[in-house]
């Protein structure tokens, strides 16, 4: 759980910087797609330096051998997930996106259940408390936002909340030799950086298709720099740390608890947005929602150790 919270701290930079980019007029497509372009570059160089070129070559061979699996899991877990988040961040405060994103905790329970995992009833209860908190956070924004646009953004984030755990769970299932999925070398599944590299590579076809679906201008220099920072903090640091924590989880309940640690992003994102972007503090309804999110997370962590 502690490792998961560390990843949540780095993940929070995504919501703060994406909001800053949107305020400056940067298109959400570049915020999403450039992140994974940078990640491929950074992770590729890091793997070559920390391992060697032969190891990097083996990763490329693994991708080509099971390209359908990696394109599917990468497009769902990285592509769809992040495109939807960046789209929502274009018109919503970063901390609100981060709070709504905690629906991934509830979505994760459904994904785990769909893969045959048994989740304790009390875990569902704590997840529902978090869901209530997310609902209050969004209700607090109705006086500041267009209701239709806010509801559409919530729908986008709900879809993203399902995509992220689904893409990651496909890799976890492949690691455990689930029938119907390719058998992946443990040398790869036990290396979080290798998994992120392969998932990022798998998302490339998705970004290419998306490019031809939207009319986007050339990204500004500021957007290039901010997305590079997001790629380092959220992609190179946070994602491997999060996947490492997930890889250490050996029971469905622990998997759910690691996923729940991402609620910490809300507090980090709110603090960062107030400090760096001059955002206003939430009203009483918003604070109540944040409080419920923290209570739900804390209860899930506490009872996971029992």
The helix/strand order is: HHHHHHHHHHHHHHH
Task: Bin the strand percentage.
Answer: under 5%
Shape: globular
Q: What's the number of helices?
A: 15
The amount of helix comes to: over 70%
The whole-number mean of residue pLDDT values reads 87
The count of domains is 1
**Topology, number of strands:** 0
Structural class by helix and strand composition: mainly alpha
Largest sheet: none
SSE layout and pairings?
Elements lengths: L1 H22 L4 H23 L2 H13 L1 H23 L4 H8 L1 H12 L6 H19 L7 H29 L10 H4 L2 H11 L1 H8 L9 H28 L3 H9 L3 H14 L6 H21 L2
Helix pairs in contact: 1-5, 1-12, 1-14, 2-3, 2-4, 2-10, 2-11, 2-12, 4-8, 4-10, 4-11, 5-7, 5-14, 6-7, 6-8, 6-13, 7-15, 10-12, 13-15
Would you give an account of this structure?
- This protein is mainly α.
- The chain has one domain.
- It is built from 15 helices and no strands.
- It has helices spanning about 1-25, 30-50, 55-65, 65-90, 95-100, 105-115, 120-140, 145-175, 185-190, 190-200, 205-210, 220-250, 250-260, 265-275, 285-305.
- α5 (about 95-100) packs antiparallel against α7.
- The protein is globular and about 55 Å long.
- The chain starts with a helix and ends with a helix.
- The model has no long low-confidence stretch (mean pLDDT about 85).
